[in-house]
Write a structure and sequence with these properties.
Number of strands: 3
Distance between the termini: 122 Å
Number of helices: 5
Strand order of the largest sheet: 1-3-2
Helix content: 40-55%
Strand content: 5-15%
Order of helices and strands: HHEEEHHH
Number of domains: 2
Oligomer: single chain
Shape: rod-shaped
């Protein structure tokens, strides 16, 4: 009954969760709940593994495979992060007591309010061009520009020669000779 309020906050359609988004979201959710950053490393995992720390590394699974249809994605990430943070904040309490419910509800509201479902955590796609490739491209362009100018010059020369041959042909045929008559 109490989780209907938590699950009711999620929108009807929830976008897929990428690995980069999952790690960034997990870091921010941990800091949101614990009020301090995680001191260890962060890493991606896959398969049926939970989003949970092991030996100083916090493993994040963006698409946990499970028998449940709701496994993986944003809902699973927030649920698992709320479980871990609740366990750290209240070590003597049961995993699904009222404090966990409240914490998960706050985390869901934080995710929605922050715009993470709209893609604010997606990394910006940056195209980095190697300087040597750019220099090579500029050199090729300069060579083709030279070839273009040479071709234009050759075509002008051919046009002049064509005109000269036409004048010579008219002179030899007597077309330019004045007629007496």
């Amino acid at each position: 009954m109490k989780y209907e309020a938590v699950n009711g906050q999620w929108p009807e359609t929830i976008p897929a969760l990428t690995g980069e988004e999952a790690v960034a979201a997990a870091k921010r959710l941990y800091r949101f709940a614990m009020k301090k950053p995680w001191k260890g490393k962060w890493a991606l995992t896959s398969g049926r593994r939970y989003t949970w720390p092991r030996r100083g590394v916090f493993y994040v699974n963006p698409g946990r495979e499970n028998w449940s249809a709701a496994a993986g994605g944003w809902q699973d990430l927030v649920h698992m992060m709320s479980h871990y943070c609740h366990r750290q904040l209240h070590p003597g309490h049961k995993p699904h007591d009222g404090r966990h419910h409240f914490l998960e509800k706050e985390m869901v509201a934080y995710v929605i309010k922050s715009g993470w479902l709209e893609g604010k955590l997606r990394p910006k796609v940056r195209v980095k061009i190697a300087p040597d490739r750019l220099a090579g491209l500029e050199a090729r362009a300069a060579r083709w520009e030279t070839k273009r100018r040479r071709a234009e010059t050759a075509l002008r020369k051919i046009a002049r020669q064509r005109a000269s041959l036409a004048r010579r042909a008219r002179t030899q045929n007597g077309a330019d000779q004045p007629q007496i008559g």
